[in-house]
Amino acid sequence: MASDGDGDRDGGAGRARPKRTDARRNEKTLLEAAAAIFVTAGVDAPVRDIAARAGVGTGTIYRHFPTRADLIIAVYRHQVEACAEAGPALLATSETPHAALGQWINLFVDFLVTKHGLAGVLQSDSAGFDTLHAYFLDRLVPVCSELLQAAADAGEIRSDLDAYALMRGVGNLCIGADSDPRYDARRLVELLVAGLRRPR
């Protein structure tokens, strides 16, 4: 990806210096704005809409992300990291582990909605897509496992639930949500999570 001007060159060594704190903060703002727009309008949403939400000009987005594929992949990675970091935080702050699991699954659904356009963007780069998918599994399956284990230890859900299977199930429920306005994937996912609870 081309330099956006935020990382100066390191003299004769030719290595890019780490981005300054303000540059990282600006990039995070852009990624969060893009993710929010992608969730509601899809990955083909106009760049001007993302720029408006982030409070910057479109040129700023192109300096950070020269192509739409660059932006979508960066949003994908940003959301994976946000989901991964949210799991432990939700366990620490939610009323119950099951509540933490439900909130985390909601974040995961947001991620899946954004992810729908990724395959199309990377259709000519299957190796790149496979690498991102492996990264997604490596980061998120352990987090989901931790949430399930905490809820099982609390006696809220069964102890034989598999994180990968649950994530696949949630993913399958989200298929078609973007093509049928009557299909409420979030409601179905909510029912799925509620159904994990052990009867009182």
TrEMBL record:
Residues 1-12 have a biased composition (Basic and acidic residues). The keyword Glycoprotein does not apply. PROSITE patterns: HTH_TETR_2. InterPro entries: Homeodomain-like_sf, HTH-type_TetR-like_transc_reg, HTH_TetR, Tet_transcr_reg_TetR-rel_C_sf, TetR_SbtR-like_C. Gene3D superfamilies: Tetracycline Repressor, domain 2. Keywords: DNA-binding, Transcription, Transcription regulation. GO terms for molecular function: DNA-binding transcription factor activity; transcription cis-regulatory region binding. This is AcrR family transcriptional regulator. It comes from Actinopolymorpha pittospori.
